[in-house]
Each structure stands twice: as structure tokens, then as C-alpha cells.
Fold this sequence. Notes:
The complex is a heterodimer of chains A (402) and B (120).
Chain A lengths: L2 H24 L2 H22 L5 H20 L4 H7 L16 H9 L6 H12 L4 H7 L4 H17 L12 H20 L10 H17 L4 H14 L6 E2 L2 E2 L12 H17 L4 H14 L8 H14 L3 H15 L1 H9 L7 H13 L3 H13 L4 H13 L2
Helix pairs in contact in A: 1-2, 1-3, 1-5, 2-3, 3-4, 5-6, 6-8, 6-9, 7-8, 9-10, 9-11, 10-11, 11-12, 11-13, 12-13, 13-14, 14-15, 15-16, 16-17, 17-18, 18-19
Chain B lengths: L1 E10 L11 H21 L2 E6 L7 E4 L6 E4 L7 E11 L2 H15 L2 E6 L5
Antiparallel strand pairs in B: 1-5, 1-6, 2-5, 3-4
Helix pairs in contact in B: 1-2
Amino acid sequence: MSEAAAVERVFREEYGRLIASLVRRFGDIDVAEEAAGEALLTALEKWPASGVPPNPGGWLTTTATNRAIDRLRREKQRDAKHRAALMYDDDSPNEDTGPIEDDRLRLLFTCCHPALAPEARIALTLRLLGGLTVAEIAQAFLVPETTMAQRITRAKKKISAAHVPYRVPEAADLPLRLDGVLAVLFLVFNEGYLASGDGDPVRADLTGEAVRLARILRQLLPDEPEAAGLLGLLLLTEARRMARVRNGQLVPLGEQDRTAWDRVLIAEGHALVRECLVVNRPGRYQILAAINAVHTDAPSAQDTDWSQIVALYDQLIRLDPSPIVELNRAVAVAELDGPSVGLALIDRLPLTGYHAWQATRADLLRRLGRTAEAKEAYAAAINATQNTAERAYLSRKRGELV
Amino acid sequence: MTHYLLSVHGAADRGEYGDYGSKEAMEAAFAATGAFNDQLHADGYWVFAGGLQPATTATVVDGQGETPVVTDGPYLETKEIIGGFWIIDAPDLDVALKLAAEGSKACQGKVEVRPFEGVV
């Protein structure tokens, strides 16, 4: 690794913490981003000669803070916004910060604020807490860089103009607001796990980032079982990532090489699920984690405890009666009671435009020997997805039908 | 503190009881709105508020040219219009959104929250 790359790696790891503390101190995201950028330039200049300092995060924060203060002093006559921002320039403890004191958590709740457009929440979270560049985020979501830049700029402008607070919500509002944060992290993960476009079918950078942020959330909110549930769910899913694509084709769970699963992540995920069971305040992500714990517990697909999985989906449907959950439940029912029972459940769901519905239906029709219908369903599934690995897998399955 | 406009959006066509289906519903909403207004005063968020006459009473004036041009009717012909509003002074958007939710429940209409750039 080159020296510049080493500096940039440290910078990315520290970015969320750095930006969050600068936002708290200066009360303005743009000021924070500019100062962080200047600190990076200084680090790129100094570290190759002097070596990475023992506490790089502290070094970056001090350097960026000094840069921001210098800049604000220089510009304070010119710009009313910066003048206002300078008012934050003191070391006094900040006001009412809610129950938990962590700058990153506060910023995460700001980025995922319900007043922002959903796609802006994801982009801001990746930009400010994940340290991804605008170009990287644009690439991840298949939009032109200028579009993504505008989306982020607009969201930042709204945060500043409408005074979206940098604050962890009060205990009474926390569950609802936490849902929004969990949803953003789950979406980021899912986009990485099965990319919606025709580029890389699996994006380890996005799944890894979602896991990292879920770890932070879990660490900062130890009493929220859904935060533990989300982390468990992501770990147990991420553990199977390496086995998920073979020769450019998606490999379904039942056909995966289970020796390629990451046992360390699985052990950690199982521990989280057990912890949630003890707390006994079930929620959507905890149940999804438990389902994935059952999958990762089985030595083979045949040995999977499908009745347990169906029971968990029944529990999930009571909390979240969505057709997607019904679809996933039907997959498990088909394993337990046979493909015709599963198919009957699937056929009444309003999901004809959804690739996973078509793909599941195709698989069940194939198993029932209804070849002509299966071929049609595979074709519909292929049309409904752009993911190259999924298309390759579905094309092979269709080709195998005679 | 930031000033926010909380504008109440409702149907442009009003019936006998304004935006409400019955006399009872209208009276209940008026009473709830009155109580909400009192609370805004008591909590120090109140700046100004008012209900508006129907959009048919609006007049558009364009004074950009040499002589002002006066046109009957609202600026935008839409099915939904602003029926009334509050201007509040709140510490941040979370407080403004919470108040907007209470106001929306009281007057039984959707409320748009928009920050002022400045107030003179």
C-alpha cells in the first residue's frame, strides 16, 4: 500500500468521528467538511515523512479544528453563515444532547431525519459517516455524479435552513426515529448484497460499510434490542457473502458451499440473537436475525429447521404484514409442506413486477414439473432484474429446462 | 430560535362547513384549534396565525412592470390551497414538526412546515 493510500485509509476510518465532532463544534456541515478536507491535505503532506501519529483521529480533529477556526476568522467579515457558525466556536459543553453522548450517533439521526427524502438519507449517511466520496455514492446508486451532488447539497441546505437538530431524539421518540436509521443501514446493506444495477453484482464496500455503521449503532445504543438485531442480521448475512456468487452466477442458499461461510461472523451473529432472546422485546430486525441464525445453524439445506423458520415468519407477519414477508414465508412453507402449497400462497401476492417473486415462482413451478410455465416465469424474472449474477443464474436454470 | 410557517392545506372548493363535513366536525375542529393556539401562547412559540378566506377572494398583482397588472383569482389554480397558517418561533425542526402534528390534528388538515430565511 502506498503512503498516500495508507493515509487515506486512516482518514476514511476516522472520517465519521471527525465530521461528527466538527459538526457539533461548529454547527455547520459545510464548515466541517471543508476543515476535514484541509486536515487530510495536511496529513498527506506530513505523515509520509513523520509517520502516522499514535492517535491519528485526535491529530485529525485538532488539525481540522484549527483550520476551521483560522478559516472562520479570515472569512467572518464576508459571510453571515460563517459568522453565525463562529458563535459555536467555544469549548463549553453542548446543550441538550439527549440521553447519549456521541457525536456520530447525533449526526446519524440528523442524516436519517424523516424530514429528508429517503434517498438523501442514504446518501448523506454514506457521505458523512461512511466517508464515501460523492462519486462513489453516485456509482453505488447508478445516478450521475452531478445528480448525487445536488441531492446531497439540497439535503445539507435543508438541514441548515430548517434547523434539523444534531440530537439523539428523546427516549419517547427514540423507537420511531431509530426505525428510520435502521432502515437506512439495511437498505445500504441490501444494495451491496444484491446490487440493483448491472455493474458488480455484489458490492462488498456497501455491505462492509453498513456492517460498520450497524456496529457503531449497536455500541452506542446497547439497550435497544433492534440495534442488536440489525447487527446480528447483517453479520449472519454478510457471513455468506463469499459463497453467494460462483462463476458470475448467484448461488441460492440451498446450493452454497457452507464451508466458505465466515464462522467468526456467524458466531458473533448467533451471540447477538441469543442476547435478544434474553431481553425478550422482539422486533422486525431481531426476528430476521433469528431466521438467519436458523439458516446458519444448519449443516446443510436439508437439515434446516424449516418449521422453526415458518414460525419466525409467522411472528414477523404479525409485526410487519407486508407481501414481501409473505413471499419469504411462502418459500419456507414450500420446503416444509411442498412446492404446491408454497405456490398457492405466492400466487395470491400482488408482486408480479418483483424479480424475487417471479424467481421463486419459477423455481416452484420447475419443482412441480410445470415446465412451460416455469420457463415463462424465469423469463419474467430475468426481465425484472438487472443484477448480472442473478440474471446468469436464472438464465442457466431456464436453459436446464427441457 | 427559527421562525417557521405552518400552512394548512385543504380543498380549494369549500362546502357549507368550510373544509369540514358537518357542523359538529367544524365546531370540534375550531374548538381544538383554539385550544392549540392557547397552548402555543402559553409555551412561547406563538408569533402570528390566521385563517384565510377562500381562494376565490384572492387577487394577483404584478408590479414588476411600469403599471401594476391586477388579475382576479389565486396565483395558482389548484385543487388544494392554503386555508390558514401559523407562524411560530421554535428552537429547531423537531419542535416545529411536533407542533405541526398537534396543529394538524386540531384543525383536521395537512400542515406544511417551512422555515423563514429571515424575519424583519
